[in-house]
Amino acid sequence: MDREIENMIQQKELLIISRPRFLFLKFLFLVFFVVIALRLVQIQLIDSPKYKNIAKKQYEKKFVLPATRGNIYDRNGNILVSNTMYISFAADPKIVGKNREAVAETFSHFFKKPVAFYLNKLREKSDEENEKRFVWLERRVDPEFARKIKVDKLPGVVVINEPKRLYHYDELASTLIGFTNVDNVGIAGVELQYNNDMKGVDGFVVMQKDGLGRVRPSIDYPRQDPIDGKDIYLTIDLTYQAVVEEELKRWVEYTNSDGGIVVMLNPKTGEVLALAVYPSVNPNEVGKFDVALSKNRAISDVFEPGSVFKLVTVSAALENQIVDLSTRLYAEHGKMKVLLNNDRFCFISDSKEFDYLTLQQAIEVSSNIVLAKVGKMIGPEKLYRQARAFGYGITTFIDLPGEVRGILKKPCDSEWSPTTIYAMSYGYEVGATPIQIACSYSAIANKGILMRPYVVSKIVSHDGKMVEQVPQAVRKVISQKTVEKITKALEGVVERGTGREVFMDGMRIAGKTGTARKYIDGKYLNNSYIASFVGFYPVEDPQVVCLVMLDNPRNGYYGGLTSGPAFRAIAERILTTSYKFSRKTIRQELLTGGQVAVPDVRMLHVSLAQKMLSTYGLTSQIFGKGNLVVKQSPEPGKRVEMNETVSLIVNDNSTPSEDIVIVPDVKGMSIRRAINRLAAEDFEVDIEGSGIVNEQFPNAGQRIAKGSKIKLICSQRSISQLSIN
Question: What fold, for 63-233?
């Protein structure tokens, strides 16, 4: 009995002792289940989207559908820039893993780069110790490499199709067009300025893996198609651009210059017809050139313009009725001493000695002394206001990146010194860009109205919607009366003055020469000059303004003897046959049935003509031994089948004997101009009809005896047809 009681007491004591432990254990279990429940709530409710995304990443992938960048065309629809497809190789370093050596050696073998170059790319962690899951091994290479490199045997390596910009004419217009980077993003020129218009909007498609690992489009996400970029139509004419670049290069080399710039405008609208900088770069191979060569010096470099700035001084004098073209002024026999403040003085010199000159004569012979005297008579305020009215000291707002304002001192500024009024009068102590100079002369050619220059004529979207650029008048700079006087003076420069090398029979040209010492790092350099000529033609109805600027010519440095002949060479190639002014615009579009319109390749270099024809699926056959196309068959604009052969007749570079001459092309010229052109080479002329020359016999380019008779068949043509298309 006692034993039972003792056992009961012991059990009771054990129960008392174990009960708290049991309760504690139950509490632990309760806490555990509460934590599990809370975690489930967090996963199922709070963090549900997060885990859904993680799950989706395991069986869903979003593929980008890249938009096609817009094309670039010239004013006549000739394609300048389009796109082509290249391939790129990428890798996931983590998946490549132990195969790094094999991958690196494979790519080193095909791309001739060190193995270490690829091994460094394939490191699994970056310098910041972050894990790398994607690296580019090679970007935009020939698709042929996809056949050579078996990526299916290289774990972690993939091939990606990528579009690449294709510049059809290499360096041609490269300064204006610019180029894109490796990601097809514009970084210079029109490519940069209109990047947002041309880049388009990428699309996408979401793909899902099913239970068998097959990839299918997701039904939960609709496919988003890409929106292709807009096409850009430039104001430049491919033919003018080719002529300008060929002649600029030739004259830079002939004069042993450091470089050169040409700007050609339509003065009535402000359209840029051609813009060239030499040397330049090939945008298809930008990596092989000094990036500084891609700079558009026509809008970003500032030069002291020299005598071409005398236009401003003369305009201010005539507009304010201070002097007239007939006013006689003493030219100091070539050297004038100018007294400044505090008994200081400076000398102003002319290249030749003159006694008295009228203002007309002073412009023709480019007298610094006379223009300095006229500038002093005008005064600082009026001279400054006239320069500002012509657009100096402010941007032209051309639609290209990188334009600068230039330098135009204000009379109230501390930089304005006692010498400024004299120096500015003949183009020193003022900084101008080539585009500013060309625009100021365009104002004269456009009856005193300054136009804003522009390079894009229209933007066309993928659905055919079009936005056209409208010419914009900036301001009326001078009166019509002053325009007529200045035009007379500038025409005298070409006929009798420093621009005589520009004179052409049968074509009235007005222009001005300029020669300025280069000012670098605060001082003028000895024997280093900027030589310029800027002019417009034809005087009676100006269609073209052209500025030619040569940087540091060494075979002669006066503008009239270097840039002037270059200007004439450009003008002759464009004007020798006036169809360049009257031709019908040929839109280069693929016609139904695989037909194309034959492009106009006359007056182009043979290599460029062949490249232009091949762009539209046409072949060519050359007749002759020269390098300039003088005639083509079929004629421009004719509809032909693709792969048709176009016959190109080129000029003969061999020197003809004194009794044998080459027949010039006078089709499209007025009778007066045609007669003057043929008479200059001693041809007899037989005329049938009146107005404009439609046909000629013998044809242009033929070699015939000197003094032979040329028959011209003419007909009337409306004056509206003589404008640039």
Answer: Penicillin-binding protein 2a (Domain 2) (3.90.1310)
